[in-house]
Amino acid sequence: MNENNDTPRKVLILGSGPAGLTAALYAARADLSPLILEGSQPGGQLTITTDVENYPGFTDGIMGPELIDKMRLQAQRFGAEVRFETVVEVDFSSRPFKVRTDRDVAYASETLIISTGATAKQIGLESEQHLMGYGVSACATCDGFFFRDKELVVVGGGDTAIEEALFLTKFATKVTIVHRRDELRASKIMQERAFANDKIEFAWNSEVREVLGTRESGVEGVILSDVASGEERTFPCNGFFVAIGHRPNTELFDGKLETDDVGYLRVKHPSTKTNIEGVFAAGDVMDPVYRQAVTAAGTGCQAAIDAERWLEAHQEE
Ligand code: NAP
């Protein structure tokens, strides 16, 4: 292993979405020289989204990747250091805490801010897994371009599903949103946009039982079942987008940090403190309720302030 022989860092941030980058900005401005280990998806989920219209300050909206670039540059301007490494192991047993990355580099830090975000969920079908990348996708902005003049299915009823469906109408001739209930969970403004879009149709009270096709042919359809009657029907389509929410990225901390039943890190409200002294959590990894870019940034700010105060209180130890 490459030992990093520096004296322990004061603040080490795991994850580089709006939470991690805002934590870095605040920690850098507090002269704590934070290091961000970006993780496997630098910038987090905003980098696979399109227009962000609800981040305050951008009157005409801003593209997700651009917003992230601005946040990163802003943090770096004040001395935050960013490395493209993913943490694979954390030792919370003594302070300074120790982490090891996928590049086999070890770091030690007096505090940790965990902002590892969340990952898109899958339905869990064998066919969905088999055809992932062959017509099945969880990212319209990444793959939508490949579906010009095709008919597509998006599964889900939240903001993500509507956003993906709206984006896909730029390429597809028709997008059918398959939802397991008869009303959407998405915000009103997104619902209105979907209902007003001629290319978007709905298959209500329906669940996807199977994705049809082969890796050679791509997706050819889905089998839908009616949630009330169980009746099944084949629904032809050329692409299948899964947008059914997210799960927090906390596997690395299993059995070490307290989580709720779903896996979100528990914090001691109104702070960002976890059950381990000196370890703080921010963003989607600890927020089962709001999960917005702006709330993630807000908790990132809180975590940096909590870490700064914690360091002040423990500087003699
Ligand atoms: P979400 O709000 O949790 O919605 C997930 C949707 O998928 C729900 O409609 C749910 O159905 C459905 N679903 C869950 N598991 C399923 C399964 N196994 N099979 C079929 N359907 C399933 O997740 P999200 O849409 O990813 O949004 C997450 C958060 O990000 C929200 O707070 C949202 O407001 C925010 N967000 C905001 C924007 C924006 O403001 N532009 C864009 C994207 C996301 P039920 O409704 O029946 O539970």
TL;DR?
By secondary structure, the protein is of the alpha/beta class. Helices cover 24% and strands 28% of the residues. It contains seven helices and 20 strands.
Can you walk through the features of this model?
There is one protein chain. The chain is an alpha/beta fold. The chain is 24% helix and 28% strand. It is built from seven helices and 20 strands. It has helices spanning 18-29, 64-77, 126-130, 140-143, 159-168, 188-196, 293-313; strands at residues 2-3, 9-14, 35-37, 51-52, 62-63, 81-83, 87-91, 97-101, 105-114, 118-120, 136-137, 151-155, 174-178, 200-203, 206-214, 218-226, 232-236, 239-242, 246-248, 279-281. Strands 1, 2, 3, 6, 7, 8, 9 and 20 form an eight-stranded mixed sheet that branches. It has a five-stranded parallel sheet with strand order 11-18-12-13-14. Strands 15-16-17 form a three-stranded antiparallel sheet. Helix 1 packs parallel to helix 7. It is elongated, with a radius of gyration of 21 Å. The model has no long low-confidence stretch (mean pLDDT 95). Bound molecules: NADP nicotinamide-adenine-dinucleotide phosphate. NADP nicotinamide-adenine-dinucleotide phosphate binds next to helix 5. Residues 54, 123, 155-161, 163, 180-181, 185, 244-246, 291-292 line the site of NADP nicotinamide-adenine-dinucleotide phosphate.
